[in-house]
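Worked example 3 (structure in, sequence out).
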């Protein structure tokens, strides 16, 4: 029994150690993919003139995501629980032809980074809002531009049009000046709306949770003070009786 427990602890330690070691390399690769994704979808000159290089980089990053998932799966002590709790990672690794799905890995990394600051509420909320909004706008603009700029009847022809559309969707100030005409573009609009709602919901839930924790902390302090006061009253009562 002792050997099995020690073995389990060593496996858990190796899993945690791997996550700590791989976190920053995978995070860097995630943002490298963000650059590849956006440069390709915006049809930037650097991407258009180096298509083979960008394709190779795209495949290498995807392979790194697959290896990362397999490594975490191999080191996990309970494969079933790992499978259930890492569905997004599995989708990123198993669906290489849906490049937009791999963007989810960037969102996961962003969530992990912000999780490190979960106790610093005054810092995490504005950082979360700004970084999430900027990321979703960038992704949405690049995706809608690729889907719409050559479509017949489209009014999203430039990158600035794409950024205006994405910002209007995410911040809910949509005036109807720019809109998608393709099915793919409409799908991006729907997904971006959900992203905007998720930002608002997360901020509200985080702030509410922080307020509740502060109230509970105050109640706990008050209870401790009452206990001390009761103890002091008992001591004073005993002293009065002795007199």
């Amino acid at each position: 029994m002792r050997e099995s427990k020690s073995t389990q602890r060593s496996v858990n330690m190796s899993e945690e150690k791997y996550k700590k070691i791989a976190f920053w390399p995978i995070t860097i690769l995630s943002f490298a993919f963000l650059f590849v994704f956006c440069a390709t979808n915006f049809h930037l000159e650097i991407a258009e003139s180096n298509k083979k290089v960008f394709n190779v980089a795209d495949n290498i990053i995807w392979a790194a995501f697959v290896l990362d998932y397999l490594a975490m799966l191999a080191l996990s002590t309970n494969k079933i629980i790992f499978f259930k709790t890492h569905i997004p990672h599995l989708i990123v690794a198993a669906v290489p032809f849906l490049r937009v799905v791999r963007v989810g890995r960037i969102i996961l990394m962003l969530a992990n980074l912000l999780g490190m600051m979960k106790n610093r509420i005054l810092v995490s909320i504005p950082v979360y809002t700004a970084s999430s909004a900027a990321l979703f706008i960038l992704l949405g603009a690049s995706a809608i531009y690729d889907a719409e700029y050559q479509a017949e009847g489209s009014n999203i022809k430039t990158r600035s049009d794409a950024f205006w559309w994405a910002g209007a969707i995410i911040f809910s100030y949509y005036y109807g000046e720019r809109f998608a005409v393709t099915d793919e573009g409409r799908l991006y609009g729907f997904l971006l709306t959900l992203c905007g709602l998720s930002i608002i919901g997360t901020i509200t839930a985080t702030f509410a949770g922080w307020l509740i924790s502060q109230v509970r902390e105050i109640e706990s302090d008050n209870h401790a003070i009452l206990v001390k006061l009761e103890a002091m009253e008992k001591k004073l009562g005993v002293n009065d009786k002795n007199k």
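Notes: Confidence is low (pLDDT under 50) at residues 1-12. The chain is about 80% helix and 0% strand.
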